[in-house]
Amino acid sequence: MTAPLTAPLSAPLIELDNVAVTLGGHAVLRDIDMTVRQGEIVTVVGPNGSGKTTLMRLIIGALAPSAGRITRAAGLRLAYVPQRLAIDPSLPITAGRFMNLPHRRDPGRVAAALTRAGLGGLGSRPVSALSGGQLQRLLLARAMLSEPDLLILDEGAAGLDQPGVAAYYARVEQLRAETGCAVLMVSHDLQVVMRASDHVICLNGHICCEGTPENVSGSAAYRGLFGGGEGALALYRHHHDHVHADGTPCAGHDHGEDAA
Amino acid sequence: MPPDFMVRAALAGIGLAVACAPLGCFVVWRRMAYYGDATAHAALLGVALSLAMSLPLAPAVIAVALAMAAAVGALSGRQSVDTLLGVLAHAALAAGLVAVSFVQGVRSDLSAWLFGDILSVTRGDLVTIWLGAAAVAALIFWRWSRLILATLSPEMAVADRISPRVEQWVLNIALALVVAVGIRIVGALLISAMLIIPAAAARPLSRSPEAMVLAAGLIGSVATLAGLGAAWRLDTPTGPTIVCAAAVLFVVATGVAGAGRALQARP
To answer: Taking 90 as the threshold, does the pLDDT of residue B77 lie above it?
Structure first.
């Protein structure tokens, strides 16, 4: 399940070189070096307040870095699936119309995409009347219609029950296998997410550790951030004195105390 | 046959309804109601400017409205937008009232600028109103899908290479045009009523964004005609009577939709 499907040297889609972000005088991210390559599934994990959302906004292009460089492959097509879609109740929109944003698409393709997402026949239903799981599948289906090179999922499975979460990540892996797109996920569903990933980045203002899921979950820095146990219960417990895999203590960044 | 000035008034009001329908929907969807108020109140400053410096009215009002939009954009992030707009909306209204008092001859018909004077609309005004309405409709039609996506999720829009900031300025420009069109008709204080009430009345009757715009345009036009007729018969101020008619349509639309749902729910 963890075997990378692609050669390690596939072309980079996006590269961050020594990127830092300062918001309102506060250093949110620093020393970020990362690369997402064609066909790779990369997961960013980190406690609340670790800069996950800021990193995502950087990669989408919604935010400019305060320092460093971001290089995108020429003609890179991104698709973004937000954590939630808070549609104002005053905006009437059906699932089918939503699939046609920001341009009209071939009706046959839209219908097929809805069916594949398990939403067949729901094209005329208001988006506000969909369940949480249906909305997540709709967002994913719309994102895939633009045939992205890089699919970005922000806490994609938040709010789903256990079988829903498993089905969601199975779907993500299947989409990658079918289309060859790279996937960048931000999540705190550690166990499930990491199994589906080729590369895991552990974030806490800076990159604490990274590597294959096995390497990361075995590293001292990771256990320092998330606690040593297998369970997700230790997720937000953030110890002050964790040590990096190379032996350097992880000091100097803002330690949010039990930020949950 | 109604008198000429009534025909002109009806055409002016329908022009305003056409301009307000698409923009009003976005004002409702994006919760920009207070923002509309601030811009419309700022128009009074534009009136003072135009009279004091003998500038044409519409460009002066548009310039001041855009300056207001830029001020909101520059200041947002420091205080809550709600507070900021509260400061700017009332400061603009007060400053406009003070500025107008320096200009000879306006004091007497201040209420025409605050509440409009649709019955005195000239042929020249009609041309301005319909040019403005056509420009607003064309602008929003051109940006339509981008505006909707940026309204649903700014991040999703950016990923699709749509700039939420550009789309916000599209709406700012449309709002400045609507204010310039509406100040002669319903006045600075009631323009945002014509933006919000028809759109709100259209909501329960609509299943798509496009249908909501069409319904809002229809409701705004009916409110204009009904308000004009009622004001003529009852000898009441015309602008406020039109807004009252729109409010009645809002109540009727909400009631009809509620009754429809109740009937559907029955076995």
So the answer is: no
| Element containing residue B240 per DSSP (H, E) | helix B238-265
End-to-end CA distance of chain B: 50
Contact B157 A152 (CB under 8 A): no
The residue assigned the tokens 């004077």 is B117
Residue B39 has pLDDT above 50, yes or no: yes
Q: Provide CB contacts within 8 A for B218, sequence distance 6+.
A: B202
Residue-level pLDDT at A55? 92
Q: Is B158 close to A62, i.e. CB distance below 8 A?
A: yes
CA distance B78 to A178: 46
- State yes or no: cis peptide before A102, omega within 30 of 0: yes
Under CATH, domain B4-191 is a member of which superfamily? ABC transporter involved in vitamin B12 uptake, BtuC (1.10.3470.10)
What's the complex ipTM? 0.83
Are residues A90 and B29, on separate chains, in Cβ contact within 8 Å? Answer: yes
CA distance B53 to B65: 17
d(CA B178, CA A247): 64
Report helix angle A107-116 to A132-145, nearest 10.
140
Type of residue at B155:
E
Q: What is the DSSP letter of B76?
A: B
What is the DSSP secondary structure assignment for residue A200, as one 8-state letter?
E
| Count of helices and strands (H, E) across chain B | 11, 0
Whether residue B203 lies within 8 A of chain A, CB to CB, comes out as: yes
Does A97 contact B209 at a Cβ distance shorter than 8 Å? yes
pTM, 2 dp: 0.85
> Over the stretch B206-247, which tens digit does the pLDDT of each residue have?
999 999 999 999 999 999 999 999 999 999 999 999 999 999
Kindly list the domain boundaries of chain B, sorted by start residue.
Answer: 4-191
Q: What domains does chain A contain, in order, with CATH numbers?
A: 12-77+147-234 (3.40.50.300)
**Per-residue pLDDT at A256:** 39
Residues of B in contact with A92 (CB under 8 A): 203, 206-209, 211-212
DSSP string, A166-194: HHHHHHHHHHHHHH--EEEEEES-HHHHH
Rounded to an integer, the average pLDDT of B35-56 is 88
Whether B132 has a pLDDT exceeding 90, the answer reads: yes
- Secondary structure letter of residue A48 according to DSSP: T
